[in-house]
Amino acid sequence: MTDTQSRLRAIPQISAVLDDVRLRPLLAGRRREWVTRLVQQRIAALREALRGGEGAVRDREQLLSEIVQDVVEKYDELTGQSWTRVLNGTGVVVHTNLGRSNLPPVAVAAIAQVASANSDLEYDLVAGTRGHRGRRVEEKAALLAGAEDALIVNNNAAAVWLAVRFASRGGPVVLSRGEIVAIGGSFRMHEILDETGCRLVEVGTTNRTSLDDYRAAMTPGATVLKVHRSNFAVEGFTEEVDLPELATACRAAGCTLIYDAGSGVLHPMEDLGLPAGERLLAQDVAAGADLVTCSGDKLLGGCQAGIILGRRELIAGLRGHPMRRAFRVDKTTLAALDAVLSAYLCAEDRPDIPTITQLGLDPDRLQQRAEELLARLAPHAPAGWRGNVVPGDSSVGGGSFSTAAVASRLVMWQAPKAELEACHRRLRGGRPALVGRMNQDGLAVDVRTLTDQEFPLVEAAFRRAWTTTPEG
């Protein structure tokens, strides 16, 4: 008998695993069916590994215990919460990997209320007939942006696809080569456009596109797409056509202009100390674009959604498009976005939106908060660790203000590198997890992206990490 055959013979039968006393509490009632699948999957994976010569040689009892333990751990994982709360100490305000913008309490309450009770989602209470989903939310978005009408879809990629598909109807779509962007994951603008069935007409170059480049491609009835380069900057010998100028040229040529604004900005970013240049949605609409698309989270500070703003007849056409149903949002998204837009409508100055609040924190307040956090942590730090409040830079995130550094304050810890790295691993493994910054200067936590209410959780996270052995 070969060594591989001997290893495989040691694998216990599925029935033996299911009969193990440690699994009996998991097998009651209907759970038995899917827990059995877990056992089958674990044994199949083990068999594959043993065939490949992986792992040390074990007897049947050892393998049985391993399988049972793995199944119990997988059971706990699957029956528990699928996500982990994260304390964001990175300084990236709209952190894509950590869930982007956080919702204000009014939006959270609205989600809970509409999720746990029936509502007039698609019912006209006055007429007693079927109504239009999200109509009042869309009215708020249109009013805030100064648009004739608006449509809510599930994200900005869907908004761009639907707008281009409807406007072009398979015809030419003119786009500057400098705006064929790639945004995270698998989002590539030209690939999205390919799926609309349009014929992409690239104009200009990566760094220079003139109005004459556009005009040369503007055949009557063509669609012109302009894309906000939100996640990168082109510097040096450059040329770009401004949106109002392009809109004027499109009207003269009989072309439809679609502008992908990226983030939906409803509050002036200069008011928060950020560089000028990020236009408000109202300015984009007023510039003359026929349709403007944007995200409902990011700088707008709401939930994941796509907003299409523009001329009434075009929005009506989008609303009646067969693919619109594939891109529609559910009642909880509408409730959250409704609450966020209402916050903008009611605000006399800055709206009570976490993203806006974090971006607007001034250095003096950040210094005070960083000193408060350090005072909480310092008494519990390991011997040899040194903590200080130091200046640092936050970033906006979410593909916005790619070159802007926002002055902030960090609680910086210095210690042997191996200890710092081990501590950061344990912080990330906590519940809640804490993600900070690790670089040659030390292990840092940026207080801009933490709330005052989270400080006790940050303290508890560090104390756990400092009292847990590296192997723990």
Give structural notes.
With about 475 residues, this protein is of the alpha/beta class. The protein folds into three domains: about 5-80, no CATH class; about 85-95 and about 360-465, Alpha-Beta Complex (Aspartate Aminotransferase, domain 1); about 105-350, 3-Layer(aba) Sandwich (Aspartate Aminotransferase, domain 2), CATH 3.40.640. The chain has helices at about 5-10, 15-20, 30-50, 60-80, 105-115, 135-145, 155-170, 190-195, 210-215, 245-255, 280-285, 310-320, 330-345, 355-360, 365-375, 415-430, 455-465, and strands at about 85-90, 90-95, 125, 130, 150-155, 170-175, 180-185, 185-190, 200-205, 225, 255-265, 290-295, 305-310, 385-395, 405-415, 435, 435-440, 440-445. The protein has a seven-stranded mixed beta sheet with strand order 5-13-12-11-10-6-9, sandwiched between helices. A five-stranded mixed beta sheet has the order 2-14-15-18-17. Strands 1-16 form a two-stranded parallel ribbon. Strand 11 (about 255-265), helix 11 (about 280-285) and strand 12 form a beta-alpha-beta unit. Helix 5 (about 105-115) runs antiparallel to helix 13 and helix 16 (about 415-430) crosses helix 17.
What is the alpha-carbon Rg in Å? 27 Å
**Count of DSSP-assigned helices:** 17
Q: Which architecture of the largest domain would the CATH scheme give at its second level? A: 3-Layer(aba) Sandwich
Largest sheet: 7 strands, mixed
* Structural class determined from secondary elements: alpha/beta
Low-confidence stretches: none
Strand tally, please? Answer: 18
Output mean pLDDT: 92
CATH class designation of the largest domain: Alpha Beta
Question: What is the CATH superfamily of the largest domain?
Answer: Type I PLP-dependent aspartate aminotransferase-like (Major domain)
Please state the oligomeric state of the protein chains shown. Answer: single chain
* Shape descriptor: globular
Straight-line N-to-C gap: 41 Å
Enter the CATH topology name of the largest domain.
Answer: Aspartate Aminotransferase, domain 2
* Order of the strands making up the biggest sheet: 5-13-12-11-10-6-9
Q: Which percent range describes the beta-strand content?
A: 15-25%
How helical, in percent, are the residues? 25-40%
Write down the domain tally: 3
